[in-house]
Structure formats: structure tokens, C-alpha cells
Amino acid sequence: MSTSRKTVTKSKSPVSQRAHSIAPSGIRKFFDLLASMDGVISLGVGEPDYTTPWHIREAAIYSLEQGRTMYTSNLGTPELRRELANHLHQKYGVKYDPETELLITVGVSEALDLAMRATIDPGDQVIIPAPCYVAYPAAVSLSGGIPIMVQTFEANNFEISASDIENALTPSTKAILSGYPANPTGAVMPREKLASVAEVACNNDLLVISDEIYSRLVYGVEHTCFAALPGMQKRTILLGGFSKAYAMTGWRIGYAAGPKEIIAAMTKIHQYTIMCAPTMAQVAALEALRGGEDNVLEMVADYNRRRKVIVKGLRDIGFSCFEPKGAFYAFPNITSTGMNSETFAEKLLQEEKVAVVPGTAFGACGEGYVRCCYATSLPELEEALVRIKRFVTKIRKNNEENR
Ligand SMILES: Cc1ncc(COP(=O)(O)O)c(C=O)c1O
């Protein structure tokens, strides 16, 4: 007996075109290589070498002892949202309603994804200053948008200007996605320059998604919160987190602050995909905000010492190295070696066991640079510099001989 079944023609790949369209993170690819080696000094992964301060861990442990193991409100606990609203007001002068304008997320990573999915329609263009954090173009593409990379230059302190943005505008431009203090360059935007970018956003009715995860890690300069600029709060989605300033990368906790309507849209997606950020991490974050200020100041002072050592060390080796004013990355220009970024990073790892990230992991315009994370102990940084010097001296000698 024959049965007739309806069949439909399927596309060949089980993987969606959107997933196909994004490249795997250039950082991860490199670190798979590193995982198999011993004795490597890693200036690679962008995370603090500190353990989360004890009182923060203790608060979370105590919450577990008390049996706080249930979901929280989708938005995050009211105490955390209230404390966060106070914190943002005190630090940056921005006022958010903890009931409607704040959402606690699984790190800035989730907040970024939600911000894109809640605001970007297929074909919308999003301007991104580059080189940039690896997730930005992917987050735009995954929401159906089109990332428009706008190159920033060492000669201009890797700052973006109003005219750079204006030149990239089209009728499809919906938003600017930027992150200052910047990963990978360490650039911090001066207030006046940020204000002129804000003016372009206003004049052209653009949204601004401002990733300020490194806002607390600045050295001798002030961080300007984008939303604090005149007229900007109503068009800015501010993303922030605990990973970097409080050494809490593994807790997976961050937040988004923005206009009520956008936060409501982000919350809908968050409800269906995540429910709520981890309860114990929310307890830890609350303790971080209430009692972690001294820890932040201590860590920042330490990063600053390391920053000076690495920048001087790289310059002494003969590299042109922009002085980073924020985050914990140095971004030396390695073109004088005659190598491209990827070859430089691969050879340095193989020959001297120092891991750095090729600048191209942060966009094509990162070619000629490598990212060195200096959230590494001073003795390790010093040893890394000795190894880099030995490596570069050998390369230069070879280059001379082959001339
Ligand atoms: C600029 C930037 N944004 C976001 C993140 C991710 O942060 P989170 O740990 O809060 O997800 C990172 C992590 O390296 C980052 O450098």
C-alpha cells in the first residue's frame, strides 16, 4: 500500500544564513591554539587577573546558605535596580527610574544582544567606530542589521569624530554602537568630542548604544557617560556591567539603562530567552555597588602602574604605542617588524610563548596592531616585555640580513 506524504523543498544547510554570516571570534580561535601550550604568558584574554573581592563572594555564598535559589523578577531584584539607579546618578548625574528604565542582564553581552534585537530591523544600518570589540558587528548582523565600520586612527587617538559619523550616514542609518573606553585601543573620548557626536545623533534622529563596561577603568582622565550629555538620555541605551571593574567576569552580570519603551521591548526578549540574571550574581552585584568602591580604586591604581610599564616597555622596544587612557589594553603598532598582525601574534606565541591578540580580530582596520591586555601581574608583564624584545630583535636582524 502506498501512502502519499507531502514533502517540501528545504535549503541544503541546517545552519541559518545569519549564523553563517558571522565569523567566529578571532580571539577564541587564537586561544584554542594557546590552550595546548605550557609556560605561556598571556596578554590575551581581556579579563582581570584578580579574584572577585571576598566580601562580594561572601554575600553570594550567604545568599545560597539562606536558600535564595529561585528566579527573581525578570527585570532583576528591586534592591539591585534601586542601588544601580543611585550609583548611575552619583557617578554620572543620570537619573533612571528603577521600575521602568533599568534591566539587569547576563553581562553586557546579553544587554548588547537585547539592545540590537529590540531596536534593529532588517536592513537598518548601525555605525560602529573600529577597531572594536569583537561582538559588536556580530550582534548587529544577528539582528538583521548591517554593521557600518568607521575606522578610527592612531594619529587621532582612536577617537571618532562627528564628521566621521556624518560621512557614514545613509537614509538607512538607525544607530551608532560605540564603546568608550575602548576595547582594543584603550581610547577614551573627551567630553567635547563626544558632545559633537551626540549632536549628529540628535540632528539625524539616531539611537546610540553606548557600551560603557570600562567606565570605571580610566587613568588621569574623566569618563563621560553618553546618556549624561544634553538631550541624549532619551536616545541612548547605556550598557554597563560588573565584569571588569569588580573582577566579576564569571558571574555573568550586567545591565541596560534606557528609555522606558526600549527597556520594555528588551525585557520582552529577555523574558523569553533568559528569564532573569542569575540570582546569586545579582546579590553579588548589589554588594559590589554597596561596598566595592575601595576595591575598584585599588585595582584601578594597580592597572595604572602596569599600564605605564607596558607602554614604556613597548616604546623602548621601538614600537609606536598609543597611550591608552582607559580599559586595560595596549595596542602597539607592529608594522615596523614587516609582519602582519596574525603572523606576528602566531610567531610570538610559538617562539617566545607570549600570547597577544592580532589587531585584525577587532576588524580589518586593526591590521598592523596587536592587543596586549595588561591585567596581568607586573612580574609577568616584565617577563613578557623581555620576551617580546628578544623576538623583535631577532626579526629586525633577519630583516637586515635579507635586505
Ligand atoms: C567592550 C566590551 N563589552 C562587553 C564585554 C562583555 O562583557 P560581559 O562580561 O559583561 O558580558 C566585553 C568583554 O570583554 C568588552 O570588552
Write the layout of secondary structure elements.
Blueprint: H1 17-21, H2 26-35, E1 41-42, H3 54-65, H4 78-92, E2 102-105, H5 107-119, E3 125-130, H6 135-142, E4 146-151, H7 162-168, E5 173-178, H8 191-203, E6 207-211, E7 236-241, E8 254-257, H9 260-273, H10 279-291, H11 293-317, E9 320-321, E10 329-330, E11 332-333, H12 341-352, E12 354-355, E13 357-358, E14 370-373, H13 378-401
Parallel strand pairs: 1-12, 3-4, 3-5, 5-6, 6-7
Antiparallel strand pairs: 2-8, 7-8, 9-11, 10-14, 13-14
The structure holds pyridoxal-5'-phosphate (PLP).
- Ligand inventory: pyridoxal-5'-phosphate
Rg to the nearest angstrom?
Answer: 22 Å
> Could you say what the CATH topology of the largest domain is called?
Aspartate Aminotransferase, domain 2
In the CATH classification, which architecture of the largest domain applies? 3-Layer(aba) Sandwich
> Tally of extended strands?
14
What does the overall shape look like? globular
Give the helix level as a range of percent.
Answer: 40-55%
The CATH H-level homologous superfamily of the largest domain: Type I PLP-dependent aspartate aminotransferase-like (Major domain)
What is the rounded distance between the termini? Answer: 81 Å
Give the percentage of residues in beta strands: 5-15%
Q: What is the name of the CATH class of the largest domain?
A: Alpha Beta
**Mean of residue pLDDT?**
95
Instruction: Supply the number of helical segments.
Output: 13
Give the strand order of the largest sheet, numbering strands 1, 2, ... along the chain.
2-8-7-6-5-3-4
Instruction: List the domain count as a whole number.
Output: 2
- Low-pLDDT runs of 5+ residues are none
SSE order: HHEHHEHEHEHEHEEEHHHEEEHEEEH
Structural class: alpha/beta
> For the report, how would you describe the main beta sheet?
7 strands, mixed
